[in-house]
Specification:
The radius of gyration is 50 Å and the shape is rod-shaped. It has helices at residues 2-37, 54-104. It folds into two domains: 1-37; 54-106. The chain has two helices and no strands. The termini are far apart. The protein is mainly alpha-helical. Keywords: Membrane, Transmembrane, Transmembrane helix. The chain crosses the membrane at residues 59-92.
Amino acid sequence: MSDALDKAEAAAREAAVNTAAVQIALAAVELAKAAQQQPAPQACQHQHHQGRSGGEWLAIGGAVCVGSIGLAFASIALAIGGLSIAIVALVLRSMWRDFNKGSNRA
């Protein structure tokens, strides 16, 4: 009986060793599956903006042209306004001189 008991004990040891090896192998397979399921990290997280399209450049050019024309008209309006004020000032000065000459005669 001792022989049968020794054989059973050896079989139990071998099963224990095989079970540990199988568990390690299963853990390695699970680790490999988990590594495959994770997405690879991306190099950068921001979005790259493409260059401006032709339509955008046309719109920018049109806006600059309209703004320049508006600025030109505003400059002309200021010049006309300044000229008008200068003429009014000269006329008033002339009238003031004439008024003062007339009051000095009396």
